[in-house]
Amino acid sequence: MFEQDQEIVQSLIDKNKNFRRLYNKHCQLKSKVKEANQGYLSIDDFDLEILKKEKLLIKDRMAIIIEDYRHTHI
């Protein structure tokens, strides 16, 4: 996730509480989705799709914050 922006992501994790909260939530959801896909987490398809959509929504929010950072700091 955001491999080309690792320095920005790390800076935002360190300095922006909202971004840090979103990043941590995204990591939790990513882990749950992975566990469900591997069969380690018992979840129905409907709930799995909800998790995936929430994860993508959070990723979109983080992308907006990264883009704003890029415009104001670079």
UniProtKB/TrEMBL annotation:
It holds the Pfam family DUF465. This is DUF465 domain-containing protein. It comes from marine metagenome.
